[in-house]
Fold these 2 entries.
Entry 1:
Amino acid sequence: MEGVFFCEDCGEVLVGVASDNAMTTGPLRSVTADLISKSTWGTAHFGREATILIHFRDTPDPIVLAQMDEMVFGRLDPATNSNPDLDLTPFGAQEKGVSRSHAALRRGDDTLTLVDLGSVNGTHLNGQRLLPNQPRVVRDGDEIRLGKLVCHIYFK
Amino acid sequence: MNAAQDLYAILGVPPGAPIDDIRSAYRSAARRLHPDVNSHPGAATQFRDIAAAYDVLSDPIARDKYDLKRKSPSSERAYFTLRVTPSKRVLPILAEPQVIYVLVELVPERPRTAEKGDSNLNLTLVIDHSTSMNGLRLERTRAAAFQIIDQLTERDILSVVAFSDRAEVLVPANYITDKSAIKANIAIMQASGATEIFQGLDEGFKENRKHAAKRYVNHIILLTDGRTYGDEQACLDLAARAAVAGVGISAMGLGDEWNDAFLDQLASRTGGTSEYVSSPGAVVRFLNDRVRALGRSLAERVMVSLAPDPDIKIESAFRLSPSAQPVSINADPIPIGQLQTGRIASMIFQLQVPPSQKPGFRNLLRIDVTGDIMREQMPGYKAIADISLELSTHPPAEEPPLAILDGLGKLTLYRMQEKAEEALARGDVHEATRRLETLATRLLSAGHDGLASAAIAEARRVASTNMLSDEGHKALKYGTRLLIAAPSDSPPIDPAVSGESA
């Protein structure tokens, strides 16, 4: 069945790098070692000096975040004096339901946390909807969703 | 209404939310989880909470009262949080059902510096002293009990029950005042009689209940080396009662004759653990480790409730850490026992998503974890996660997450072992042999040489005698299970060869 990672009969890894091909996959070659050397999701550790990259889906290049202790993501709106640290208007924030003051990334000594600032359409971390004002630790490669705006976060 | 339960969090709205948002949050929860649309037992449990929260927050007077009570600083604090990792973040749209795995980690928050010290225990040791325990086994068990007494303090409560075909209370439940007197009572234990676990468990439960309270880690440790006959159901029923009373049961099987499937069930009813102690020499370490772990409790009586959306099916669940344990998904909530300070507890769920989904984001399931916070004497603290996913005709390429790949890879070894046993139980010797050989190959390539040779030896044995040895069966079962709980970055441990040297 599609989505199964390991064959329970033979122990074979059934998952390769995801492809656009939606056909049901049979057992592929044994790729555990390759996968583990290639895969980066969740491997990099966050340090005080780490550079944070944000890659918005369907945009060519990731953006590098400034070294700030707290960075608010939202939508610039002069009418209400909303001036977030990162204005997401160029990424289609308005139509994707991003609030003026949507979420914030906070740097700690060894962790980076994401907190929803009471946004209308919610903040999701890897599909998990965050409760407002409850910070959650972010790991390298995590998916963040602000309303319907999807981005991935990386540490360098 | 319990002070530890944040009604706003239960509805998933910010504390200042206007009444319209509260109403719409309730309605969307009702569309997913109301018993009329969702027959999953977890949905019923969770919807009750949601409806109760809505009752308060939709009534202006009740809400004002609740808000006033809520404004104490301690209620703002997180004791544990949930972290969820799905195997894919964007699913393809398919004309057939597909599988998705969800790794759920229960992350204990770092305690504030002022909060040190272990939790107080209300511990009951239930010790098998049947004839087969004679000699080294009983001697090491006594030594283990002495060490446990030494590590307990006068704020802890201990009781000791010895059983064979009848039970005897060696140490009645009480605070530990005179350690040498307690030891003297244990020292007289002699081996005799047959094994009837219910006798011991029943007496042990009675002792434990005398002092069972929410401020304690209430726990029974059962140590046995034999099979019990005819009273297994009575034991399981007792475990269910213990779970309700907030008493955990851990089971330790010594040697190779005990019934592992039974002890697994017994322990998992209360969220306890079951372990295989391969040699008498390891008894002291196993028991002491267990008692130490019990003392490092952040939360007790932790229960996980899963409410999948009506069209999502939960196929299986397995606890990966701190100890690997199969989990029954037939009942909700699932008891997982204890959350230790500084140790992440994780579970992996396999879900099935139906075919022909619409593109876009959709909800998958709501997870609700409740536990009693030991230090704060705060019962019923909750962490809630609502999981959603995106479906797309052209999902972007993604690497499978390492954490899932790693956990699942090890779980697969355990499952292969299980499947070999199932084949053997069906009488299919050829199939069982083949599965054991494949398992051996996999274990070898993963660097677990000791377990691999155990698998080969058992494959040969099965081919010639149609049976697994008791020892090989347990070595493989608990060996592959230990692999699951071991962190992947530490050198591979090889329980099959650790035996006497430990």
Entry 2:
Amino acid sequence: MRTKIFAKCLTGLAASLVLAVLACNQGSEGDRCNPISAANGHDECGSGLKCTTPDNCPESYCCPTDGKSSNAFCQPGCNGGAASACNAGDVDACAFACSADRGDLSNPDTQCGAAMPPAEAGSDAPAEAHEASSEAGADAPSDAGQGG
Amino acid sequence: MTPASPGAEEARQPPASEKGAPPAPEPAPGEEKPAEPFAFGDFTWLNGASRQHKAVLDTPYFTPEFLVDVNYTASQNNPIDHTVVGSTALSRNNEFTLAFLGFGGDFHYEHARGRLMTQFGVRSTLVPRNDGSSMRGQFDLETALRYISEAYGGYHWNALHGINLDAGIFMSYVGLFSYDNAENWMYLPSFTSDNTPWFFNGLRLQIYTSDKLKLEPWLINGWQTYGKFNEMPGFGHQLLWRPVEWMSVLSNDYVGWDTQDAPGRLRFHSDNSIEIRYFKRPDLHGLFTQAAFSITGDIGFENGDGVTPFGGQHTNNPANCTNSNPCEQHFLSWMAYHRMWFWDNHLGFTFGGGMMNNPGRYLVLPPTGVATPYQALSTDGVVYNAPGQQAFSLNPGTTFNAWDFSFGFQWMPDELTTWGLEFNHREADTNYFAGHGGVTSPDGYITTPVPAGWRPDLVKTDNRVIADLLLRF
């Protein structure tokens, strides 16, 4: 009898374990999403949200359909995305990044100056500066300050 | 990256004094034949050791072996590129994955001995990619050796309780878990095991001084490397002591020079484990038959050429790490697991976890895709591409702290088959694990153009379930 109860408990625990992780979860505001499947009619974002590529942003995020959001990833430049694009040579993104994300640029004096085209500046930028900005990454401004 | 457990090998192979020496000469009358190493007890309970009591397909000259490892893992992050970041056991999400398929075995005739184990499945790319030494020079060592997990030849002496000298690629013993998942209590080990070597390339001398103690020095190319990063080889040794059936003590130590273009940077690592079985009641045949635990602690560091352990600065710019103002670079970790067996040992339940602290990130498994910090070869093998701007930094001056816990079941209907189901939570203090956006491209395919500045989606936590089937003949 005890063995059967134990077996049932184990089975239940295993099943709930699988369900807990596999449960279908739709994207929340500011979560990454797949813009190509969204364009094909398979938007994975939750209710009231849609897969959006903000202006001057190289990625796509779940953002409100009405365009009103306080989430940093739903804003133009998507929380450092413009600077990342500028660092990679996207000239159009540099104009925005110089005004909004100057601190995330690898070489702001050059990238935001008129003397050198931003694309060239980006390709010459030191790798470690890029790494620093990438590690700050999607949602971790605290990591940017890990260096001493 | 991890180690194949010592126990694995001890259980897998014929006793040392028999390896390569059948038929052994009969001892003279009155002369006592040395006891076979570790044959005095049943060590199939150990984490990282075979639970088979005998080789199924054994012959006098060749003991064949056939291994299958299939998993299906699902992460709560559900990355759109189906890519797992930060493991040498898992590679693909939401897919049936043939992680490892190997066939081979042990050759033994008189004093000659050898072992071959092939390596097919995703691990043939997942593990070799962590070896930067193969980027040195020509002939593409990664491709040449990726389908071999073990390959060595050796010689056996009937001295003491057996002495073996082997040359080739052999399993590393740093850490507790085995490279063969069929020998482990859990499928996905903690960082202490996952981030330490799986194999070595070089020489090893196994000296069984008694039936309870093995001493094993190594002369190797480096820390899980096919080649050498610098001019000096790596040195190490293992000590395996099993004084009684219910206890096993393992210690591995390593010294080497494993950083590209930094011949003055010495790496030291010490790995120490104890496993104790504190309960055994086979007569119960039912609910609860056995219980054991393992504790592993590692300490290591790198010193020289701009880094120093247990002190030093942290910086985002590795150029600031100088000999006069070095950056901190060491590895501290532990892991512990508890295992219970039920129903005549047909069901196992394990829980455990661990932590790691690795400033300098020299043992952090590098993310892949757009986040890879490695230079990549083009497909024609000639053009080298610099790491992308979004590379996850493994440079001196960085920091990395992580922890994990897991629990899971293993159903073992016989000694050859294991069905596993487990939950694993991993967490780091920096964005490291694959998030929903993945590390490949906007839709997860490598054929989709990546916009300039596209950032891989790395996050701090990863919750996943892992189902697996492990077969071992």
